[in-house]
Amino acid sequence: MGTMVTIQVVHPHGAVDFAIERAFGWFHEIEERCSRFNRQSELSRLMVQPGVPVAVSPLLFEAIQFALLVAEESGGAFDPTVGRRMQARGFNREYITGAIVEPMNTPDDDASYRDVVLDSDRKTILFLRPLTLDLGAVVKGLAVDLAARELEPFENFAIDAGGDLYLGGVNERGDPWTVGVRHPRRDRELIASLQVSNQAVCTSGDYERRAPESGDSHILDPRFGESSNAVSSATVVASGAMLADALSTAAFVLGPMAGVQFLDRMGVEGLIVTPELERFETRGLPYAA
Hints:
Blueprint (H helix, E strand, L loop, with lengths): L4 E5 L6 H19 L7 H6 L6 E2 L2 H16 L9 H6 L27 E4 L4 E4 L8 H16 L5 E5 L2 E5 L8 E6 L7 E7 L2 E7 L14 E2 L4 E2 L5 E6 L2 H14 L1 H11 L2 E5 L5 E3 L8
Antiparallel strand pairs: 1-5, 2-4, 3-4, 5-6, 6-9, 7-8, 9-12, 10-11, 12-13, 13-14
Helix pairs in contact: 1-5, 3-5, 5-6, 6-7
């Protein structure tokens, strides 16, 4: 997933080492099933079979099903079929080796999330036309949630997967966890601090990755095929990391006002910062004291 994952368990006891090992294992499992950069992944094998219902694992089915739900709720501001456009803009390199990964098919330029058909009974997925799925805004959060499930018996813990966070219980001082939100324009500075417990916090920012040639943000508006420029960062606090991860991307694309309205409608808290550093936020954002 091209990210550093850290796990902290407060006052570890019992079989904590085994639980942590299982928690880390979910990141490898998700990578093997859901990466578009690995030609042997389950997702890659699915993408070379357009027009055919393909039975997939429960993990991949859950990730794609959730991505489609967010796409529908956001009116297409979030769309997992954005992979072709990502590749065309230079986001086609394997994170670890830097090797260019060529498309395994010839995606249809007009493909969208509406071209993905799920059969919940048979757990099959059908692509109505060739397309490239990018589940990057879903599967890292899913891995965090699965890891958190392994650590639930220990109550108090923190998982950080490159800024996708889940904070269980309390910290070593017995207080809710404090999470700093990175300033989108000043290195080593925070623009806000939040206080959370048993919640996830995820941020989408235009500073995270840039296209190698144009310098455009890696977050595209799927509806128009262009980088989103009205927002610098969107942070979401939600019950789970997969939810927070996907909704932060959708809110980023929707823009500050529509993004906050969307987060309110989805029942989560969030902070959106524009390039001019204007802040838009939901009413219940849990600022640290």
